[in-house]
TrEMBL record:
Signal peptide (from-to): none
Superkingdom assignment: Bacteria
SUPFAM superfamilies registered for this protein in UniProt: alpha/beta-Hydrolases
Keyword terms: Hydrolase
Organism: Solidesulfovibrio carbinolicus
A GO term, aspect molecular function: hydrolase activity
Entry keyword Amino-acid biosynthesis: no
Name under which the protein is recorded: Alpha/beta hydrolase
Domain AB hydrolase-1 intervals: 105-177
One Pfam family of this chain: Abhydrolase_1
InterPro entries to which the protein is assigned, alphabetical: AB_hydrolase_1 (IPR000073), AB_hydrolase_fold (IPR029058)
Length: 275
């Protein structure tokens, strides 16, 4: 009996330690942060001479930085794609390739707190509040007739959906999206009470019913980080017009290397911006 009690106590303590570890480590798992590589910054400036810094002051005074590449027609900015990055990205990764792939659009993106050159420490609440400030700053740049498509990848898909639920957008592009990070976390840690531990649940299904703009879902068929079932659940809760496209054999990280990826984005943008 004593041995059984000791073993049981050890197992309970180990489980409690596991839960404490998850709680304490989650900020770093959700927001690991990433500083901009100066060489990559120089590279995108060389590729796109018209690239401008995009600096925004958050509601609490935190300075956020990113990039803005205007494209003009008749002296007016073309509709913009506003990008929200994944949790392992800073905006230079998007600006390295996207402007060349999307020559008919203005491109904009600002790094989360603690990413790129942005100050501060991120949280779900601050990232979402900042995203609305960023949208408003971009809308001011574009002028009264400006149109914005929000695009988010992985973590950023939930941020893009939040903006679309709270601001007028011409379209929404969701790359490897999830129904909630809570659900993703529960899949990864099936024996932990993730609902009780999660500080940044990012429940995208709560925003979906508020969005009427057309949406493009881009899902990696072999994604093991955000499994396709998470995207399927979100799509099922999405009442607005949507295009759901699975890229076979693509993974969470290499989906952007697939030719089908940019082709689908260009076709979607041309369709929703023509309306």
């Amino acid at each position: 009996m004593k041995i059984a009690a000791v073993v049981g106590l050890a197992a309970m303590l180990a489980y409690l330690g596991y839960c404490v570890m998850l709680y304490l480590a989650q900020d770093g798992m959700v927001f690991p942060g990433r500083t901009a590589d100066p060489a990559r910054v120089a590279e995108i400036k060389r590729y796109y001479p018209r690239l401008e810094p995009f600096t925004v002051t958050a509601g609490d005074g935190t300075a956020l930085t990113g990039y803005y590449l205007p494209r003009l027609a008749d002296g007016k900015p073309l509709p913009a794609v506003l990008y929200f990055a994944g949790n392992l990205e800073d905006q230079t990764g998007f600006f390295l390739w996207s402007p060349n792939e999307l020559r008919f659009a203005t491109i904009a993106g600002v790094d989360y707190r603690g990413y790129g050159g942005s100050a501060g420490k991120p949280s779900e609440a601050s990232v979402k509040a900042d995203a609305l400030v960023i949208y408003d700053a971009l809308a001011q740049k574009l002028g009264p007739d400006g149109r914005i498509v929000v695009m988010g990848r992985s973590l950023g898909s939930g941020v893009a959906a939040y903006v679309a639920a709270n601001r007028p957008v011409a379209g929404v592009i969701l790359v490897t999206p999830y129904d909630s990070l809570l659900a993703v976390g529960q899949e990864g840690h099936p024996y932990a009470p993730v609902r009780l531990l999660m500080k940044h649940p990012f429940d995208t299904t709560a925003d979906a019913p508020k969005i009427s703009a057309p949406a493009l879902f881009l899902v990696a068929g072999d994604d093991t980080l955000i499994k396709p079932v998470r995207s399927e659940h979100l799509a099922a809760a999405w009442p607005g017009p949507k295009t759901y496209e699975v890229i076979p054999h693509a993974t969470h990280n290499n989906i952007i290397d697939n030719p089908q990826y940019w082709k689908a984005i260009r076709e979607f943008l041309k369709g929703c911006l023509a309306q």
